[in-house]
Amino acid sequence: MNVLKRELLPLKSSNDVVIARQRVRQSSIGLRFSLVDQTKLVTAASELARNVLDHGNGGEMTVEELANGSRTGIRLTFEDWGPGIANIEQALTDGFTTGSGMGLGLGGSKRLVNEFSIESEVGKGTKVTVARWR
Amino acid sequence: MERIPVLRMGPLLLITIQIDMHDKLALQLQDDVTQRISEWGSTGVLIDISSLEIVDSFIGRMLANIAAMSRVLGADTVVVGMQPAVAITLVELGMSLPGVRTALSVEAGMELLYGASSLTQSGIADERSEA
Question: At what angle do helices A14-30 and B23-40 cross, to 10 degrees?
Answer without folding.
Answer: 110
